[in-house]
Give the backbone structure.
Amino acid sequence: MVEPSKRDWKLYREKIGEWQEHYMEQLVKEYADYLCSDLPASTKFWEIEKRIKRDRKTPGVCIELRKSDMFWDIAGLINDKVISMDDLEEFSDDLKEAVALILRR
C-alpha cells in the first residue's frame, strides 16, 4: 500500500476534529432521544453508560493520529458512518483508492 502524501496527511489532520465533532453531535442527539423515552430511569442510566463506554472507543470519538494508520482509520470512520466517501473529495485519488481497497476486504 502506498504511503499517504503530505498533502493528504495535512488535510486529514485538519478535518478529523470536524468529523469527530459532527459524529459526537449525532451521538448526543441519540442519547437525548433515548433519555426522553418512557423507560425506567435505571434502565436508561445503565444503557447510556454502556453506550458511552462502547462509543468512546470508536474512531469517531477517540483516535490516535498516526500517518501510518491513516488509510485504516479513514476506512473505520466510513464503516462507523462517521463520514462517507463523499467526504474525501478533496483528498488524492491514491488515498481514495487505498481506502476503497480496505473497504472491499
